[in-house]
Fold DUF2333 family protein.
Amino acid sequence: MLERITAFFQNAGQAIGRGIGLLFAWLVWPFMAAHGWYGRRHWMVKGPILAVLAVLIGLYGYFFIQTQVWSGFNPNFIDTYRWSERTVPAGQELPPSTAPAGSDATPAATAANPAARQCQSSAIVDAAADLTDFNVNQNAWISSMLLYRLGFFGIDWDHTPFLDNKASFQRGVNQAVRRTSTELVDTLGRVRGTSGINNNLQDARGNLQFDEYSWYFGLDPFGFKTPTPSYYRTAIEKLRAFNRDLTICAATFDSRADNLVQFIDRIANDLGGTAAILRDRSENHSAGWFDTRADDRFWFAYGQLYGYYAILSGAGADFSQVIRERNLGQIWNDTLSRFRSALNVQPTIVSNGSEDGMIMPSHLAVMGFHILNVRSNLVEARAVLDR
């Protein structure tokens, strides 16, 4: 019996070895054939081919570095803003000799010109601008890079387990900023019924809604195009221009309780949709480490939470008076803590296994759990504001 077991494992090992050998030969054969053909060509043929190969190697090397290096990534980056030091809600006039927190004005400059009105800038707008800057200036915007558009031997990178996590994360961050820009235009940046839409915010929203995948040239429609990062950089300029106008009281930020209610409601709905996507993927495609789309879903949700964590932290400063008057401080802080806890989940390899699996965990279920916890807190905060 022992001899049979030993023979079985020996035969299995030999079969696996032959399979690996055949696979290796199948992968190497095209390169060996190409090498033989190349060796028989004249230098006038070899030169251009070598130049093309050098360009491709350089492009793929750059692409690999950009997808793997996440410059400026820091879940604690909101601590640098010191928004807790703000004493005046966004859009409200500051006391004399007080410079707006986060502005370039100094108390001395303000005191030298006492006639100049100074208002508090918006932390939400700062967060939206900085998140977009993080996406397109501190990092390359992956989704519109040429090699990302070409895919992996014609296969969409999102359908492979390689080099697409950063792109999904960036799109998640951008989703949070897009939703915020819409709310800034429709409600937060104007007094409903008595003021028009702010042009800077309107332009920012239009630019942020632009196609996330546009390169310098496209087929539909055919011709040259302005790439996606250029539109997003323009949005950054418009958001910062709005805050500069707000600082000199030349723009409006309506920090009323009903606006905060609507803003929270929109974010909760957005997160609810993401939780549903995670649940669907987790329940219907639980292939463990072999689910090549699980990482896309996970990192999109992570980027969305990363963006909303910063934006809602800014909302806490912009609506500080409402939060204080409605005794919402504890719930608000708890909500932000739940965001931060979710951002601690950073698996090296995203697995979409069964929820009770021992070997392959379900990172999608874990992220969905965190999102629903955050959403539950937002719903609770909305209920308190509605009272």
About this structure: The radius of gyration is 26 Å.
